Amino acid sequence: MSDTPSRRAFVQIGGALSVAAGSLAKATGRLRRAWGGGVEPPAPEPVFRRPLELQVNGQTRRLEVEDRRTLLLALRDDLGLTGTKKGCNLGQCGACTVLLEGDPVYSCLLLARDARGKAITTIEGLAGPDGALHPVQQAFVDKMGMQCGHCTPGMILSAVALLRDNPHPGQQQVREALAGNLCRCGNYVKEVEAVLHAARGAAAGSGGQQSVIGSRRPVLDARPKVTGQALYAGDVRLPGGMLHAKVWRSPLPHARVERVDLQAARALPGVAATLTWEEVPNYRGDRRFLNGKARYVGDGIAAVAAANPYQAQEALARIRVRLRREQPLFDAEQALRGSPVRVHAGGPVAGFAAPQPADQHTIRFERGDVEKALKEADRVVQGRYTTPWQCHVPIEPHCVLARWDQGKLTLYDSQQSVHNCQRVLEKVLGLPAGAVRVIAPYLGGGFGGKCTDNEGKTLYQGIAALLARKAGRPVRLEYTLQELMFAEDVRNPFHFELRVGLRRDGSLTAIDCRAVQATGGYASSGPAVCAVAGEGILDTYRAEALRYVAYSVYTNTPVGGELRGFGHPQAVFALETHMDKAAEAAGMNPLDFRLKNHLREGDQLVTVEGELTPIRHSGLAECLERGAQTIGWRERWTPPQAKTGRLRRGLGMRMSQEHSGRDVANGLVAIRPDGRIVVPLGVGNLGTEAHTAIVLLVAQALGLTSDHIERWIEARWADSGSTAWDFVSDASRAVHCTGKAFYLAALDARQQLLATASRLLGADASRLELRDGRVGIPGGGRALSFAELARRAPRRDLASPRHGPGDLSKVLNEDTGRAFQPEAKLHPSTLALIQREFQDCLVGIGLYAYHPAAKSWGAGFAEVEVDMESGLVRVLRLVMAHDVGRAIHLDGVEAQIQGGGIFGLGYGITEELLVDPSTGIPVNPALHWYRPLTMLDYPAIDAIVVEAPDPSGPLGAKGMGENPVFNGAAAVANAIYNAAGVRVDEIPLTWPRVYQALQRAGRLE
Amino acid sequence: MNFLPASQIAIDEPASFRLLEPRSLEEAARLLAGESAVALAGGCDVLERIKTQWIRPREVVNLKTIPGLSGVSGREIGALATLAAVARESRLPAALRQAAVRVATPQIRNLGTQGGNLLQDSRCPYYRGPWHCYRAGGATCDALRGFTYEHALWGGERCYTVSPSDTAPALAALGAEVEVFGGGRLRRMPIERLFAPPSYDITSMHTLERGEILTRILLPEAPPGAGSAFRKAAARQSWDFALASAAVYVEMEGDRCRLARVVLGAVAPVPWRAVEAEQALLGARLRDRIEQAARAAVSGAQPLPHNAYKIGLVKRLVREALEEIAAG
């Protein structure tokens, strides 16, 4: 017998279906059977609460909970132990791991009642009573065993259980023990190292280091992350409690909302407020945070806030929405050829400003005469490439807590861009500047999915805010795993058509690319991604003639937003697979072809702003040589024809560049009268640990050694009310842009310290040095403390922040698609902050807008084994060499290369969101179907750091957090060709696809 | 002009239920006879469905409070024994331990039970999603119109889902029997009869009636020289259900194979006996017939649009399992 049949919202069926939607409409039959054929939902659920005693961390805790309460919610919400993190909530990520009688289990898949009588250990139970960290916690601190930290408590507990059973594990055993803890930041290499370090009983601390730049040291927020004390948005608790919101989302890909009936929902006990699309204010753009026309499955139509999540869910089931189906459109190329379907009035193409007709591209760049150059070529190589929808799946789903207080709104949000989020929410809610404050000290991974930087995003915060205002109480909105995977924005899929012209000597005459991107129901970042994908296509190889034309096309599918790489991963896969074919057509080794043809210092780059700028300081040649050497390319590469047997090995490679950011950053360093140095960073804390690198830059400028950083520097971040204005923490910009601005600010403060000390000591400034919080004459002469100097320095005029020539480049306005020259002034909110908080301080200020020539360069190499019988591919090794300009925090740089490499490997070999072609419903929105890589899935990784400093970066540092993501797909695809002699021009390179390629080529064993 | 249910994606906590904790099989069977009751063992499958509210039982019957069902020995596994306990038990045959240790993750193995692993529901994403397919009580198979990457090579009939359990093919290869409490008494049957092909009941993966409880899995005594192995292929090395798996058990007479069972997982709605592969091994030295058996294992396979790669996987896994037995 099957299980008790399902039950869902009540339904009323009538009328013919206007689309062939499979059996979806009959889903209602599934529900009617459960209710005995009726159409009204059952009466409100009876609730059974019972006393329960749990043994938690050695203490007896008494609760009264419902039988349905999971241990996870009991720990977090009933006992206030928020160290155990909530991730997918369905036993697929491991963030909720606790120890039950010493064994790791998922607390989200365990009923609280089922845990009674058993010893439960949470992360809070590990540290000693004096606060001394458990050896595993200490090892994670010392070895940077975390990035965003959301998987960290669970992973530490799994490691503790391992070491109790096996005090001396090998690497493989560590990986197997931790295989049930997913780390989306891909920090596996360091996590394993940390566990082995703890097993060796290695001494705490990384030793007193004098040098600051290029050092390894714990990140600034290591301790809160390993103890579970880090408060992510879902951990925030307010006195007086909060309401819980849920969103009614469309089951159809394209439908007009005719009626929303909230009567039955409002009648439920516990429901405090409701919201429909009609109550959402009008603002710029093609999207609202609740919509009157559903344009993809999952589009939000209405919302409800209730006293607890159970009631909110129940209320959701009682909201009646009448939808009038419209013909959906799923195929972007079809839309361009001509389709009667109108996702948006105005046309099928998403332009920067508005929808456009099918014959108007979203973006176009052309240099020289491509058609002529192709005719003049000795050979033309053509190809077509396809990339999928990818999901961010950070371990922490989006969560916001909205609280009003006398007209001012505070958002505790999982947010990468607190200042932009403030600006956007003020705008859409019609609030005055300064009315909104966004606080996000910790977020459990972002990867671009938590950047609320313009009105085209989902703006789920608006839903929580309006419900909170109506209810007069704070409201928390927390995504489920499925909402995270496709109701929020994802990475858009592309088709690329590439043509390159080759001369006999292997050089290129032309690169011609037509790109079509399915941006989904709304434009979101679609057009901007098209622009950056153009950068990916045009900025790596030398060719006189270049052309890139891209169309961002509306489809009734999940929406394309920002995801790490922002167009590059798609473009690099296409370009690098194509160039591999070109190399073969030219009769050249893939490495030699790239060494011959890559752009060099002095060559022109095309920027997203549509301008040309010469390259300076490229470390690409070094990346290529060192990477090739490490993997043994020259010694071991053989062509596919030379391979035999059922299991064949191959080598593949790729290279690329990436910009070091976008837009403007403000720098602010304030030295208090007591000598402490405040560094109020606007950067988001998404796991890149950029705050640590930026603080190292400030310390360097102010003469502080590493040991003194925690003593003197008070770093804070990601609070729009108490930090310097910053754009977004994305686009690989934090260290290069914000770091430069803060470095300039620190130099500005340094200059003021020297000037004041010079005056007071009567010595020339050039004879003075800064050392550990004092300024004085070297060799033990007189010195003045920062405190004294801060008290006595004259107040600085704030009208002209420090910046150098070339520090304020033109930047792209993504709303209009045009470049503009930023003004040489601090943002008003930074000035307001100085006014509010730092009036009595010595204030240093700096300003920087990213330089488009400050590209990071990278080369990746992969070795694979292909099973010619089944298409089973094993990735054996990944070598990644990245030119980062200058490595400021070495642990952090390595973590980005390793982690980004693993993230990109998943993109290349397992990850794709499958959208059902009949209904537009995503088929695999679960982690065990979507397949982000686990602790057992990464190969041997070599992360090589190359430094070709760029003059505009802080001490030469460039951005580098995204480039490593571009390694996996192209390098593995090229390696598969080298091994098996078949090209797979579509990613991910799953076994079925490789098998199909082998079958078509007649090469199956 | 439809009122339609919301997309269910915003739901991840259960509807209200009472947790009942019987102390005996009789009591449990009585409680499970109710229309709105489901059994709870490790919860790794049923709790996910309860939290996403694809099922909304009013009573959840905790089987873990019934004494005597969780022991493990060299020939007997209580249905409520955890997979971790099975993987640890050195007296159990290799194939079963190898299968148990490949299930999901350490955390799931610490909660998930042997019985639950056998009785788990189909993992077809269409069935688990909002599609009203045959298995959900409807009148079509939506996977056929969509993606069939993970569906059946054999035995599909209107429904093409696959048996997701790793331990099931291993136990079937080992010749296990299961013990079931139903109708007030215990009965035994070969494990094959526990699994329901679509022709038997397209809405259920197993043959237990409402109110029946799986109590024990029993293994026959293996003669000296018997060997077994289990191999699994999955896209990820952790957490993932098999794309294909193979369990092999052989009894030898001298250096010749006297009896062979080759059972495939994740390629059919039930664990699939590869009879031709077994016949290829009989009477021969294992090493001489590995390739033949691997090829014979895929005879009669009927691939769907996206799953032909599984044919190659099955050959590889049967080959590897036989090589391991031949070496040991």
End-to-end gap of chain B: 67 Å
- Quick one: biggest sheet of chain B? 4 strands, antiparallel
Instruction: Name the shape of chain B in a single word.
Output: globular
Please describe the biggest sheet of chain A, giving its number of strands, its sense, and whether it closes into a barrel.
7 strands, mixed
Structural class of chain A: alpha+beta
| Count of runs of 4 or more consecutive helical residues of chain B | 11
Order of strands, main sheet of chain B, comes to: 5-8-6-7
Question: Quaternary status of these chains?
Answer: heterodimer
Find the CATH topology of the domain at 227-327 in chain B: Enolase-like, domain 1
State mean pLDDT of chain A (0 to 100 scale).
Answer: 93
Total DSSP helices of chain A: 28
Low-confidence stretches of chain A: 1-23, 29-39
Helix content of chain B: 25-40%
Distance between the termini of chain A: 43 Å
Q: Can you tell me the residue ranges of chain B where pLDDT is under 50 for at least 5 consecutive residues?
A: none
The main sheet of chain A orders its strands as: 8-10-6-19-16-17-18
State which percent range the strand residues of chain B make up.
Answer: 15-25%
